């Protein structure tokens, strides 16, 4: 039972580190720079 607990703790730690790495990568890539502009895109599109 202790072995299973250790495996679950290690796997959850690795998963958390992976998601934190993805979050840091998204921050450095500029994914969260201007999140407010997306709601105004509909007003700037040209209709035909």
| Helix/strand order, N-terminal first | HH
Strand content: under 5%
Helix content, binned percent: 55-70%
* Biggest sheet architecture: none
Please indicate the count of domains.
Answer: 1
Query: End-to-end distance, in Å?
Result: 66 Å
Poorly predicted ranges: none
The average pLDDT value, as a whole number, equals: 90
C-alpha geometry: rod-shaped
Structural class: mainly alpha
Number of strands: 0
Rg over alpha carbons: 20 Å
What is the count of helical runs? Answer: 2
Give a description of the structure.
By secondary structure, this protein is an all-alpha fold. Helix content is 67%, strand content 0%. It has one domain. The longest helix has 28 residues, at 2-29. The chain is rod-shaped. The mean pLDDT is 90.
How would you concisely characterize the structure shown here?
With 48 residues, the chain is mainly alpha-helical.
Secondary structure layout plus pairing:
Blueprint: H1 2-29, H2 41-44
Features of this protein?
rod-shaped, 2 helices, 0% strand, mainly alpha, 48 residues, single chain
């Amino acid at each position: 039972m202790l072995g299973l607990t250790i495996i679950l703790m290690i796997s959850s730690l690795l998963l958390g580190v992976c998601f934190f790495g993805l979050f840091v990568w998204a921050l450095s890539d500029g994914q969260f720079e201007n999140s407010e502009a997306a709601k105004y895109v509909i007003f700037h599109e040209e209709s035909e």
